[in-house]
Amino acid sequence: MNFWQLSDGIRLHHPPHHGHDGHGTPAPGWLDPSSSSAIDTGDNSAGDGGDGFFSGSAVNAPVVNFSPHDIAQAGIGGNADSHQSNLVQIDQHAAQMAGIGGNGGSDNIAAGGHISALDSGFGSVSGGVQSGADTAGNGGDGYFYGSMIHASMVVYEPINITVAMGYDSTALADQTNNVSIDQSAVQMAGIGGNGGDGNIASGGNVGISSFGSGMITTGGNSAGNGGEGYFSGSLVNAPVVIYDPINIAVAGAGGTADANQSNTVDINQSVIQMAGIGGNGGSGNFAIGGSISMLGFGSGAGGSGWDLIQTGGSHAGNGGDGSFSGSLVHTSVAVYDPVNISVAGYNSNTSSDQINNVNLDQSSSQTAGIGGNGGNANVAAGGNASLVSSGLASGSDAISSGGNSAGDGGSGHVSGSLIDVSVAIYAPINIAVAGPHSTAEADQINTVHIDQSMIQIAGIGGDGGNGNVALGGDVAMHLLSDLHLLA
C-alpha cells in the first residue's frame, strides 16, 4: 500500500489569506470526455452593489473678481461725502465624487444548486464540479484613476476715497462690508461600498459516486463584505482669497476728515478629502460552503482520485481594503489687509475708525488608504466532506475546508503624500494725520478667528467586528484497502 498516493495534504486550518474582495472566483470547467465538459451551478449573485469606475479628471475652477470703486471729490469750501456698503456672498463650494462603489443590499440569498452524479465507467475523470462562487449583498468596489481639482480664486477689492480740497472743507468716507466667501470642498474618490446585512451565500451540496475528479469545490462564497477602495492620482484643492478694502478721507486746512471702515468677513476654505477607502463589512451574514459526499469504488484501472476537494474559502462581513497611490493636496491662501487713512490740514480735525470682525476657516480633513471595519455576528464556514474509497491508489492531492474569514478589518495601504499648506495674511492699517493745532484720532478694533486645524489619516487598517465565527468543515475518510498510519 502506497499511502502517499492517498493525499498530499489534509488542511482543516486557516491557510495564508490573500484578500477578501467579496467577489466569486471563476468557475473551473469539467473536462469529462465521456459526458459534458463542465457542470457549473455557481457564479450566482444577489443584492450586490455595483462597482464604480472613473478614469480622467474632475475639475471645478470658478473665478470671482469683485472690485467696486467709490470716489467723491469737492473743491474749496466744499463737502465731499462718500459712502460704500457691500453685502456680498460668494459660494464656490464644490462636492466632487468619483469611482464610488454602491452599497450591498440586505436579506439576499445566493445559493449554488446541488449536484448528484453517478459514473461507474473505468477511467472516467471529471475536470471540475463547481457549485460555489456565490455572492450576496457585497459592497461594490470603487476605482479611481486621474485627478480631482478644485481651484477657486476670489479677488475682492472695494476702494472708498473722499477728497475735499481747500480751506474749511469737509471730507467724509464710510465703508461697510459684509462678506461671506465659501470655498469649502468635499472630494471623494475610490470609495468601496458598504456590505449589506443579513445575506446568505451558500454553495450547493455535491454527491458523487465516481472514479475521480480533477476539482470539486463548493466554496468561494461571500456575503456582506465591504467593497475595496482603489485610488491612483491626486486630489487638489487650492482656493485663494484676496480681500483688501481701502478707505481714505482727505480734507484741507481748517477742515474735517472722517474715515470709517467696518468689515465683517467670513471666509471658509475648509476641505474634506477622502480617497482609497474600503467599505465596512455588514452584520449578520452567512457564507457557507456546501457539503461533499463521495464514494470511490475503482480497482486501480482508472487511478481513481481527486486533485482537489475544496469547501472552504468563504468570507462574511469583512471590511474592504483601502489602497491609495498619489497625493492629497490642500493649499489655501487668504490675504486680508484693509487700509483706513484720514488726513487733515492746519487747524483741522481728523478721525479714523476701523472695526474688523473676521472668521477665517482653513481647516482640513484628509483621509487616505483606510481599511473598512469588519461587521458583527457573521458566520463563514467550510462545508463537510465525507469520503469513502475502496480502490487501490485512490486518493486526493488536497482536501481543504479552511480558508474562511468573518468580520475581519480591511488593510490600509498608502503610497504617496498628504499635504496641507495654509497661509493667512491679516494686516489691517489705520492712520490718522492732522496738521498744526489740529486733532487726530485713530481707533482700530479687531476680532479675528483663524482656524488652520488639520486632520490627516493614512494607511489605517479597519477594526475587526465582534461575535463572528469562521469554521473549517469536518472531514471524514474511510479507506477500505490496506492502511498505514502516518506518524
Q: What's this entry about, in short?
A:
With 487 residues, this protein is mostly beta strands. The strands form 9 sheets. Strands 4, 5, 13, 14, 23, 24, 33 and 42 form an 8-stranded parallel sheet that branches. A 6-stranded parallel sheet has the order 1-40-31-21-11-2, with no helix packed on it.
Polypeptide structure, described:
The chain is mostly beta strands and 487 residues long. The protein has one domain (31-67, 82-157, 178-240, 263-336, 355-427, 452-479). It is 0% helix and 54% strand. The strands form nine sheets. Strands 4, 5, 13, 14, 23, 24, 33 and 42 form an eight-stranded parallel β-sheet that branches. A six-stranded parallel β-sheet has the order 1-40-31-21-11-2, with no helix packed on it. The protein is rod-shaped. The model is unreliable at 1-37, 298-304 and 482-487 (pLDDT under 50).
Content-based structural category: mainly beta
Low-confidence stretches: 1-37, 298-304, 482-487
Most strands sheet = 8 strands, parallel
Return the average pLDDT rounded to an integer. 79
Q: How big a fraction of the residues is strand?
A: over 45%
> Quick one: overall form?
rod-shaped
Radius of gyration: 37 Å
The total of helices stands at 0
Counting structural domains, the number is 1
**Distance between the terminal alpha carbons, to the nearest Å?**
16 Å
Q: How many β strands by DSSP? A: 47
